[in-house]
Specification:
Pfam families: Usp (PF00582). By secondary structure, the chain is of the alpha/beta class. Helices cover 40% and strands 21% of the residues.
Length: 295
């Protein structure tokens, strides 16, 4: 069974990180035969204002945005990935991107992490966060410079939830596609004292987690092309994942479930995926569950 998307939606604004997303989306579409759609969202005139009147640069911005979109579509095709369609819309970027992803039944949204782009219209950091929180499909958020794609390693934040299971399936198939290793990483709360003296209940928890990780690695070895490595580390889930990514100077792809890691931890850690999105030095893949509700 393949977990690759049949349709990829690339959100673009002309910023450096957006161009990284274009490279990744074109590469994935070319390798997998997925249909590739491009979208650029222009904020409505009433949203693109200064406190004392209309932005003087707004006039002509729509034409420039359309030219930007056409130019990036041509560049995608030069990379060897045919563009199925381009979409120029007006509205709030995160809402319009999610709406089109639903209409297209997209299997993946690709976008940059932040940046205003040459049109100075949208801060993609806030847009990417809005898309990640509401998209019905996995979202690939790119950053880290030209060396960030293709990834040299895939790290999956595991917590045994349906969201993490989906993230692991897609991440392991990407690992196979690019002939790199995958690691399943579970972060657990740090012990209050010396690990050597941990109570039996905590020792049993770690034993069960290790058993579950081994079972997951066994199930995924066919998807990944090789058995994924497993790691258990004490600490905050987001911090542990970011540290792991930094081992390859940001050239690792981090994959996480959208609802956060380790539901057994306090509710304030439920935004692990957003923490990773903000702190990761390289690309991040954030996945909802297979039965993600439509916004």
């Amino acid at each position: 069974m393949s977990f690759f998307p049949t349709t990829i939606l690339l959100a673009t604004d002309g910023s450096p990180d957006s161009r990284l997303a274009m490279v990744a989306a074109a590469d994935l579409a070319g390798r997998t035969g997925s249909k590739l759609h491009l979208i650029h969202v222009e904020r409505p005139k009433r949203l693109a204002t200064h406190p004392f009147g209309v932005d003087a640069g707004f006039e002509g911005a729509e034409e420039s945005s359309w030219e930007l979109l056409l130019g990036e579509a041509r560049e995608v095709e030069r990379c060897g990935a045919p563009v199925a369609d381009i979409h120029f819309v007006e509205g709030r970027p995160s809402q319009e991107i999610v709406k089109l992803a639903l209409e297209l039944s997209a299997g993946l949204v690709a976008m940059g992490s932040r940046g205003l782009g040459r049109l100075q219209r949208l801060v993609l950091g806030s847009v990417s966060e809005g898309v990640v929180q509401r998209a019905p499909c996995p979202v690939l958020v790119m950053r880290g410079g030209e060396a960030a794609w293709p990834p040299r390693w895939v790290v999956v934040g595991e917590d045994f939830s349906p969201e993490a299971e989906r993230a692991a399936e897609i991440a392991c198939e990407l690992a196979k596609l690019y002939s790199v290793s995958a690691t399943l990483l579970w972060a657990y709360p740090p012990p209050p004292g010396d690990e050597a003296g941990m109570p039996p209940a905590r020792e049993e928890l770690l034993r069960l987690a290790l058993q579950h990780l081994n079972d997951r690695a066994f199930d995924l070895q066919g998807v990944a092309g090789r058995r994924p490595e497993i790691r258990l580390e004490a600490g905050d889930a987001a911090e542990v994942l970011v540290r792991a990514s930094e081992e390859l100077s940001g050239r690792a792809l981090i994959a996480v479930g959208r609802r956060g890691l380790d539901a057994a931890q306090p509710p304030d850690l439920g935004s692990t995926s957003i923490k990773v999105l903000h702190a990761a030095p390289g690309p991040v893949l954030i996945c909802p569950s297979k039965e993600a509700p439509q916004p």
